[in-house]
Design goal:
alpha+beta, seven-stranded antiparallel beta sheet, disordered N terminus, globular
Length: 219
Amino acid sequence: METTSRVGAEDAPSTVTAEGMPAARRTVDGYLAATFPWYGLDEAFTGPRRLMQVGTAADGTVQHGSIGHGDEPSVRADAGAEKQRFAVVVSMASSPVRRSGDGTGVLDATTVSSAAWLAGSGLLACTWPPQMDHALRDDWLDQQTETAFELADDLDGPAWSVLSLPVDGVPVPFHYRESEYGWVLAGSARGGVYLGAYGRGMSAYGLGFSVIGDITTYA
């Protein structure tokens, strides 16, 4: 594995919380603790926006987070899930090779592949083939997650195409793939940020991204 590694326990998405604080405030504080800028869809999107969750390292450093647009994602087997229209933008800090939080190993540098993996796994988290028995979903999710990881590590492979989309008004090439469950994008932005995105019911071809000036307005 040359370009990326699976997001491990210390980098896995988790919501930052603190006792005695309203939920919305707890969430936005996690975003405010980040040392990198957050991105969302640009002003062409006029629908609802929401904070989702941030992912932190073992030392509490914010590594990545997600901003939701449109409907709130739910698993595809849920009533009405087929008609959902949403896009989720993942911002991920560019990080060099670094020691793990417990000092026992080394974490790979983050790359565009890392953002692709986060976006792919995020799409899977709100997907569930309607014909599948509930008891089998964990096995299905494990299998699909492994596939998403392998695809993210091969961005130049046949599963991906290149799509040019504006980031802060400047065309940027993104790696793009579609599946029966939705689409996934991965690329780069300014400020040392890798961008991932996933969605369903909204075309990726018309999207644009921009830095969020005031993240507290999303709370």
